[in-house]
Amino acid sequence: MTILVTGGAGFIGANFVRDWLCEDRGPVVVLDKLTYAGNLGNLAEFLEDPRLVFAQGDICAADLVARLLEEHAPRAVVHFAAESHVDRSIDSAADFIRTNVEGTHCLLSGALNHWRTLSPVAAREFRFVHVSTDEVYGTLEPDDPPFRETNPYRPNSPYSASKAAADHLARAWFQTHGLPVLTTNCSNNYGPYQFPEKLIPLVVRNAIRGQALPIYGDGRNVRDWIYVSDHCAGVRRVLEAGRPGEVYNLGGGQEKTNIEVVHAICAHLDAVSPRPDGKSYAEQISFVKDRPGHDRRYAIDSTKALRELGWRPGESFDAGVRKTVDWYLDHLPWVERIESGDYREWVKRQYEDLHL
Ligand code: NAD
Ligand code: DAU
């Protein structure tokens, strides 16, 4: 009944593991390197729980991967571990190639070796769920239909190129070796435990500190926002009922421009934690130099996941953003704790360059 979750101390992985254990779905082994983005505190309530085994390590370490698979004989691998921030991939892509491409290769190879030792029944039931992103499909024009699973791959950033490469490896391990791999391509997640380098938590953090709210370019880039627990439910459905070798697009179905997102955050902050001077947090908005290669619009068509798996997202953007802002306000010590020296250095470099 055990599953092996990579990247389970990061944003989506931790939400996935927390939901899994709360619903008592069985034992979990988490393999996570604890990079700047990984934080054991995200799993704090479960660290003494006998259902959770935490292994700090690198998905590129073939021996470690083989040992965990042999020792715990998981029925599935759910692969979240990645370098995930587009701006960092523009700054330097090496870690992205290493973890996202070489790391995925190492896991697929380890899983294949393990799968070949299983009984016919266990081998038939084994699953490798590879968690990927809508960014592999590139960018959409305003009137284009949302991305479907059949859209061509056109990654534009070093991050999305590395994820696209990983997706191709995942496909090849199914086509060539028969390993029961399933891939999900999801849109922009938000919710509790997201590292404050990403737009929504960054804006909440900067707003309450009285700092500028940096918006790249004209702020009209569109993202399709999904509340993280909806994404996790989609990954669970793929694990339970998806067909090996298939790709499933998972999206929130809620397209917003960045400026709309930032205004929604400011409006809620104005209501629940007003500025002492009575002005709106929106006064802190500052338009800065655009992200190079900035994709204009993402949107996901989740029809296949609905039709085959009965999955659909449940959270509305308005309610989800309010919940998320409230969560950050209630967890300010969490934000402070995870802001290591490395993160402060990054913020300084990234936003000083943007003349903020
Ligand atoms: P995150 O950056 O918050 O977390 C990544 C986790 O992976 C961290 O805990 C980190 O320590 C771990 N990790 C990194 N390199 C590792 C390595 N070499 N070995 C082991 N562990 C390592 O990322 P996230 O936002 O939670 O994204 C999780 C996955 O979902 C990624 O694969 C990402 O591409 C995908 N995804 C993210 C989004 C989103 O909006 N955040 C949307 C679609 C898909
Ligand atoms: O679409 C799924 C992807 O969503 C995931 O695969 C990535 O891992 C995840 O990081 C996210 O990528 P984005 O680049 O879309 O997310 P980010 O939060 O960095 O930015 C969201 C939008 O906000 C994007 O258009 C860039 C813009 N932005 C971002 C930051 C950090 C700003 O305008 N200002 C900022 O300071």
Characterize the structure shown:
With 356 residues, the protein is of the alpha/beta class. It has a domain of 231 residues: Rossmann fold, CATH 3.40.50. It is 44% helix and 15% strand. It contains 13 helices and twelve strands. The strands form three sheets. A seven-stranded parallel β-sheet has the order 3-2-1-4-5-6-10, with helices on both faces. Strand 1, helix 1 and strand 2 form a beta-alpha-beta unit. Helix 4 packs parallel to helix 6, helix 7 crosses helix 11 and helix 9 packs across helix 11. The longest helix is centred in the N-terminal third of the chain and has 22 residues. It is globular, with a radius of gyration of 20 Å. The mean pLDDT is 96. Nicotinamide-adenine-dinucleotide binds next to helix 1, helix 4, strand 5 and strand 7.
